[in-house]
Amino acid sequence: MSTPSTQNSLRLYGRILSYLRPYLGHIGLILVFNFGFIVFNTLSVWLVAPFVSTLFQEQPAVEKTVPEEGASAGILNLNDWLKARTATLIRREDRLEMLKILALLVFLGFLLKNAFAFGEAFLVSFVEQRVIKDLRDQLYAHVVRQPLQFFERYSTGNLISRITNDINALNVAVNRSFTKIIRDPLLILIFVILLVSISWQLTLLAFLVIPLSGFIIQKIGQSLKRKSHRVQERIADLTSILQETIAGIKVVKAFGMEAYEIDRFRRKTEAHFRAVLRQVRLNRLSGPLSETLGIGIMASVLWFGGQLVLAGRLLSAEDFIRFLAILFSV
Question: Is 1 within a domain?
C-alpha cells in the first residue's frame, strides 16, 4: 500500500516528466551517455579484481579460468563466463606484460566512464535549466493573473519564498529524476546480476542487511524534508515582517510601535533559529549514522565472505575482491 508521501512523489515526477516533452531529443542523447557510463563503469569495477589478483599471486588468476565450449552466460554462471572472456583478452606469458594490459584497461575504463558521465551531466544540466526557466515563466504568469483576493490571502513574503525556494526544490527534483528514473535502475540491476553470479549467499546476506540501513536513512531523509519545510516557513515569516514594517514605516513611527515591531521580529528570528538548529542537528547526525551503518554492512560481508574464502568453498579470493568492489559501487 503506497503512502501519501510516495503518491505525492509520483505525482511530482509525473508533472516533471510532462515538462520534459519538448526536450526528447536531448533526453535521447542523455540515454546514450547513460548507456556508455553504465558499460564502462561496470567494466572498470570488474577489472579491479583481476588486477589485484595478478599483482599479488605467483600465477595469474585468469589462467585458472578457461573458456568452455558452448558455455552459456546465464546468471549463475555469468561470473565464470566473464572471467573466461577476460582471460582470453588479457592472457600473456609474462605477468608484467599482463599487468600492463590490465592497468591500461582499468585506466581506459575509468577515463571513458568519466567522459560519458561528463556528457550526461552537461546535457542534464541543460535540460534541467530549460525546464526551470519554463516553470519560472509559467509560475510568474500564473501569479500575476490572480485576482486581488489572492494577494490579500497570501503575504508578499510567503509568495516570494514559494516562488524562489519551491523552484529551487524543483531544480533538485528535476536533476534527481534523470538518475532515479533513467540511470540508477539499470545500473543497479546489472550490478545485482553480477553479485548473484559471484555468490548468491553473500548477495542474500547483503540484501538482508542493506534494507534495514536504507529504512533508517529514509526516515532521516523524511524528517529532514519536514524540518526544511519548517525553516522555509520561518523564512517566509521573516520576509513578511520585513516587507510589512518597511512598507508601513510611517505608520509604525506615527503610533510609536518601534518596540512592538522589534519584539515581534525578535520572536520570529528565535523561531527561525530553533527550526534551523533542529535541521542542522539532524543533518549532522545523518552523515556519521550513514557511515556507521555502511561499516556495519561491510563488516558483515567481510566476516561471512572471509569464512568462505578461508574454508576454500564456493568463493575464491579474486571473486571476493570483485564482489566487494561491485557491492560498494552500487
Answer: no
